[in-house]
Amino acid sequence: ANAAQLQMLRYQLNPHFLFNTLNAINALVRLGEGDKAERMIDQLSRFLRHSLDQEARPTATLGEELEALRLYLDIEKVRFDDRLDVRFDVAPAAQSAIVPSLILQPLIENAVKYAISDSEDGGSIAIAARIVGARLELSVTDSGPGMDASELGSKQRGIGLRNTIERLDTLYQGDYTL
Question: What's the DSSP call for residue 80?
């Protein structure tokens, strides 16, 4: 049942990303930026291949998760060019930690949507990870306007946050903090 629920949640996330990327490629083609569109198609292909390879696995190492994020962010860097600044601060010991596969994806998508695309000047996204005691602490921050902590538990939150919470709850039965 857990595996089926996780698979259902993943299926909700992938189309969202795919449609956004295809729309960005379409925009590049319409703007006559064929080289950028070709690069984005190549990067999308690599990201989807990686996602399919991870599909059967509910978990991955943080290193694998970050590799998927880099593939995704490479696509977004084509789209936003110098308007997107990404920084990673990952402790070496955290690389081998086990995490739900693609768990950071919706958080990064939200950061791109609300911190980068909504700002004329773009912005920055920082991904950090470290081991604290027996737990992995992950952090995704961006230069956007942020959200009130009360919104996290709200029924108004979007698909990405809702899926992240549901996936964590399914895998860890409440033994996590978000």
Answer: H
